[in-house]
Request: fold
Amino acid sequence: MRPSEQNEPVFSKRAAIFESDYWRDDEEEAARFLKPGRLLIGGVGAGRTVGHLLNRGFDIQAVDISPEMVRRCKGRWPQIPVTVQDLQKTSFGEAQFDSIFLPFHTIAYVDDVDATLREMRRILRPDGVLVFSVPNHWYARSIVSGDVFRGKRRSTPVKRGEPGTLATSFLSFADIGRVRKIFPAATVRGRISLSGRMEAPNWKDRVLRMAPFLDKSLYFFCKA
Reply:
């Protein structure tokens, strides 16, 4: 079974747990990298990020692999086009978007990360940007638990305390070379290092700012 075939039913069945509405400091900072204009949100889920990005003036289109997620997003944001699509091979023509945002670790759940990056490059306009988050293979807790030795594709819970597992891909700071084969101007940062406005950071936050390569999540910033 391909990872996407495992993941789509899990997301559709557990869609209700993704309807919470929040916007993190790291997402706010990451969104500053996006270019004004036409924005594709890939893996939009139930639409948590849509309102925050609409408020920034983007012309938004969204996709998700889960029909149930798309239904819920449409119900909440009927003014934007939302379709069921696989990010590895979309129906969009070349050079359609100024920016693409893949929140929720979306790229971790596709069958082929490299194929997805190539497709994102294809549909971006010249000088367009892609921003995506992904779980870190060398997360400090994964090293301590030994999960890091299970490989870069492994099963993870859909959400802590909830039933259902996902086939999840992990990247690390070292994968910047892999990404730069498709987006030569790519950079990578740890999630906590983006949270510049964080109030009263605890000791873990301070450590992860100094050692972002051990953070739980990474952000890749890619320019076409």
Observations:
- DSSP finds nine helices and nine strands in the chain.
